[in-house]
Write a structure and sequence with these properties.
Length: about 140
Amino acid sequence: MMDVTPNQTPLFGIELIRDYVLTDLLGSDYRQVIYWAGKRLARQFPVVDESELASFFEQAGWGMLEIKKRKGTVISFVLSPPDTTRDERPQGYFQLEAGFLAEQFSRFNGCVAEGYAETSKEFVQITVQIDPKDPLEPIG
């Protein structure tokens, strides 16, 4: 039985779905579909501003998020994912988080933003590129 303390997400269930079920169902489309799922989640769970992003990531069980660097229209984040039972992740695993951040920054800035994640052994770097020359189209 897993020991779950308050404010701690049981990771095994999340890993089962993300690492096994979704990769089996989506196959080679995993990376793209999971990215767009992250964008959709951001629309369903919008944060008020950048200051709420780290707390959302913690509450979602995605790990500790911090801004590493901001230069012009590019923002680099470092994500320290929670300890997991697996050493390797499927290719594109953190694209959900990248899509989520990209969509939040689209909303914050009123223009298109895209994100991508790169992994290392210790952390994940997520880069969001904002395109102020490509405004969002009005809804409705």
